[in-house]
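**Discrete fold encoding**
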Amino acid sequence: MPHVGSRTSVTRQEDDQLEGLELPLRHQGWVTSPLTRRLPQVTATDADSGPFGSISYSVGSGIGSVVPTQFSIDKRTGQLCTVQPLDRDEGADAYDFTVTAVDGGGLNSMVYVKVFLEDVNDNRPAFYPVEYAASISTQSMPGTAVLRVTAHDKDEGLHGKVTYHIVAGNSPPLFSLNKDTGVVSLSWSLSGKANTLVQLAISARDGGGLVAQPNAHVNISIVAGTVSPPVFEQAQYFFTVTEDTPQGTSVGAVRAQNPPGHSDDIFYSISSGDPHGYFSIDSGSGQLRISLPLDHEAQAVLVLDVQARSGSPPAYSNARVKIAVADVNDNVPTFPAPSDSILLPAATAPGTAVYTLQAEDRDSGANGQVHFELASGGDGVFSVERVSGTVRLVGMLPPEAGAPYGLVIVARDGGTPQLSATFTLLVHVQAVHDHGPVFDTLIYRVEVREGTPVATRFLQVRALARDAGTAPLTYHLRADGDAASFGIVPESGWLYVKSALDRETRDLYVLTVLASAGAGGGAGGRTGTSTVRVSVTDENDNSPRLSEERYFFTVPENQPPGTGVGRVTASDRDAGQNSRLTYRLLQHDPSFLVHTQTGELSARRSLDREQQSSYQLLVIVQDGGTPPRSATGTVHVTVLDENDNAPAFLHVAAGQELPVQVLEEKPSGHLVASLQAKDPDEGENGTVTYSLTGAWAERFTLHVATGELRTATMLRHADRAEYLFTVAASDQGMVPRSTSAVVRIQGQSSRPVLPKVDLHRADLVSAPPVLQTLSTASQ
């Protein structure tokens, strides 16, 4: 948890009524715990004694800010504490708020408090991008700048200062690195280094000693002569896409051409500008597609750096792609609270502005322009200005208090279709001759955590009787639906919890407190009223819930790295940080990663179904509560087959012949050979059929499915001693793949062949050998 600095500025504002009430700031020692850190204590003194001298403290909103939920104050001692971890890097670096002290007589005073967060070194530097590539000519002179690596550290000051170092790949030291700027430059002549690739690993270290993980990887191609990279058709591309466009939709394409005399294939990649991976690019076509859901309110414009490469070693060029994410009307206007109440004296003059509405719409342009309408409850007495949201009194109020006016006000945006939100303003009328007790404030606002034990006291209201000498005041709650969960001590005005509170069921209660003077507050007594707005704050009492216990996704093989596989979704009924969900894989997987914020599962690398056809992953979703709650789900990924393999003959090597011998005069249908080919693809992509081509092919038959080669007629060696055929094995894919082999069939005579006897030579050679030869031949 970042250290909470001791710099606290306090501005004092005294109420003229409070003579003798002093609010010096008293600094206390630090006490650290996993959640709570004590801040300086705010104390007030009151010259009065007895009940009028008792003081209670409360935290309120600062200048232009809301009441901070990160801090609490002890109502009795004024001790300020943090109630949740503070992170200067991800949130605010300072907080301002007010502390109000109220004495037993209802008088109050206020101070402004500002808390600054001091940075600690709790963030490592992080490279983006991690992969860098550039090309340089052997003719380049030492000192030439090649590229620049960049790492960012969220910390500030010395903790956020990054230095760079080459840690591998620079032997001999052809390149140098500026440790402060990250610029890689040529330091030696590249003579004799043509057509080589230098791969550098570069580390980043912050001022506190933390090192980036992983290092940056830099590939530098050294090209002979002039570098001739692909040339983009445009130096800059501009595309626009609406934020509700589905994933996988094409945004546009970039194109590059090889310079004259070069015909290598061109490959495209996104080198920077998209750290979250909202877009992907087809490496072969340059087509840009949406990979993650877009949100105009989160990021309206992305500027990508797209790189094209060709050749070996590759030469690189870059183009800038600006993608504007256009707004759609996907945000409803929101009020700070769904309702409020005010008290107006009956003598208020018509034309008086009595309240100003505030509503916000996160959309842009007309989609974010809000105007107000009075839907009901005005009764011709109130009006609402369409643009400013000012509520004005336009008629006379009744002289006596009656039922409050319930103004229902609608805020609409300018989108198509229009989105709206509703706000209720209760207007209480104070009678002209009302001399009942007066509360120290018209509206109390208090926060109570859900799960607060029953009977816990959380707020003391106070009222003063207008007439001296009246009987003690008695407090009670107006009986309505909101009051059922709370009670009040009649003698002291302490509100307490009467039944269990659940923010997920209800997060706001509006109570009407009555203070009565007279005999037991009964008939004939005068009564004063005040409103108490009880906001129920969240506790991390709900675990995330996955939309499915098991997810089944499919992805084609051979897709580029970064291809989306599917999305794991979860919800959490809690609010704020307690409902902020992050996703991760239970164990690191070399083939897949999950986006921490969106739950989008994508491939780290191109998948090969023939190597592995299915995967099972465990995904954990965790909320941001302290301590966090989590849920686990199983993801089954099936890799779909593509026809990326041609059949291969089992007994014939590529480019070689298969010799086969067959005896002559065998009957038709004689099995000559069984030609078998295998295809590792599946389904039709892996189903193999055979065909036979060549002269005299009609003398043989080849079974289309089994590859059995048989004679179609009786073969005679005297007719033809040898046959040469081409056998093709083809699969049944949409675009079939095939392999061919040459089969050489040699016919063999089925009769023994007698040696020819030279009679003249027999006369010259002794008889026994000739007889032996003839005998042997005749056997």
